[in-house]
Amino acid sequence: MRALRERSSGTRRPATWRDYQRSLQRARRTPRRAPVPPWLMATAVGLVAAVVLGLVLWSQGGGPSAGASHASTVPAEPEATMQAVLAKADLTDLLETQVLSHLRDRELQLDFGRRHLTVTTTLDAPLQQYLLGQLDDPHARYVAVVAMSPESGRIVALAGRDRDDPTVDPCIGQSFPAASIFKIVTAAAAMEKAGLKAGSPMAYNGAKHTLYKSQLRDTRNRYTRQTTLQDSFAESVNPVFGRIGSQMLGGPALEAYARQFGFNRPIPFERPLPESRLLVTDQPYQWAEVASGFNRETTISPLHGAMLAAAVVNDGLMMEPSIVERIVDPDGQLLYRCQAASFCQALSPEASRDMRQMMQATVRRGTARKLFRDTARDRVLAGVEIGGKTGSIDNRTHDLRLDWFVGYATDPAGTSIAVAVLVAHEKFIGRRAATYARMAFKEYFRARTAPANAS
């Protein structure tokens, strides 16, 4: 754990969060000292008065010029040199009951025992407030929007709503079927392990969004459709990705690359985060289901979904997510400070460049094209590079249609944001996940391109 430094037998060792708590308890248990005798108090007061009078007379007579300062001040220790008490792992107990997706401001006040702590988050308050104001969709049971900085992992927006249970945090407290956003993992594995490129030729038979065993056969006839890996990704063609999984990769490779992207392993975060799960059997058809996202067993949280897109735009490097910038106690002591840390190299920089190209194709002419049309004429988004991946699947009871969009946006100056949106539609389809993402991109960059003197 990160810690204060204590002296013990002439050596310095890190003090833990428990040490900090014990120090507070010792302070509370310190016995009161015996009262000072009245005669001693009177003597002390007289001495102080004499000293003060002497100083006044001296300053008026040949001493230093009037107005000169006699008190030496000790500068406060800069925050950059202060040693934090808490490590990131310590914050899970502190924040476990907090519904962070409801926050409207950067600061959060918490009581821990008898101590009142000030938690400063990484949130972009205007963006967070804007997104919270857009979540009231009567046709959605829940909506989750997560936006983060790809380079640092800091979360700039975490806005969520569960219509039936306000205590549930759908952004980080639940996992959902990943559907076709898992094609990001499959495409990375196909490029790095099978040697495919964005323009590699592919072929399939049948419909794009079905996955029958017959579609996995290497059949070539007049009904065979020719495409590329990039277009298969952009249009979410299940048979192509099913064949990649069953014929080119296999179960062990899918499992290894999924773990490389953060599945089946804990992700360090300041709140308990459910693991994204992936199940691989020894059946080739099941490999095809996994590779194409055509199953409900592969699950992911919206926060982890944002991490997938962030890794693509960060040269394949996935950063640990963080939402707490710092924590201070009532005495101003710094208890925690956020430190950017890498989580894993999800894919190579070369593969990430091809992946960006494929995600841009999804927005320009693929499954998200209708919801991102006219961005070239948008006053804010014109010139912004946007890429993404969509996904959709029913839940097990078929009363919800889960609608995903994970993607990124980068402006000409190189500023990037990664976003994941999940919407659970009920009987009617309301605002789509990609629409929320577009709104988030526009609001984020609008604030950065607005004139400094704008109201």
Written description of the protein model:
This protein is of the alpha+beta class. The protein has a single domain (121-449), classed as DD-peptidase/beta-lactamase superfamily (Beta-lactamase, 3-Layer(aba) Sandwich), CATH 3.40.710. Helices cover 31% and strands 22% of the residues. It is built from twelve helices and 17 strands. The chain has helices at residues 17-29, 38-60, 91-95, 125-132, 183-192, 229-234, 238-249, 251-260, 284-292, 302-313, 349-365, 433-449, and strands at 4-8, 11-15, 107-112, 115-121, 140-148, 155-162, 176-177, 201-204, 225-228, 299-300, 317-319, 324-328, 334-337, 342-345, 385-394, 401-410, 416-425. The chain has a five-stranded antiparallel sheet. α5 crosses α7 (238-249). The radius of gyration is 29 Å and the shape is globular. Mean pLDDT is 86; it is low at 1-15 and 45-82.
Give the secondary structure arrangement, pairings included.
Layout: E1 4-8, E2 11-15, H1 17-29, H2 38-60, H3 91-95, E3 107-112, E4 115-121, H4 125-132, E5 140-148, E6 155-162, E7 176-177, H5 183-192, E8 201-204, E9 225-228, H6 229-234, H7 238-249, H8 251-260, H9 284-292, E10 299-300, H10 302-313, E11 317-319, E12 324-328, E13 334-337, E14 342-345, H11 349-365, E15 385-394, E16 401-410, E17 416-425, H12 433-449
Antiparallel strand pairs: 1-2, 3-4, 4-12, 5-6, 5-17, 7-10, 8-9, 11-14, 12-13, 15-16, 16-17
Helix pairs in contact: 5-7, 5-8, 7-9
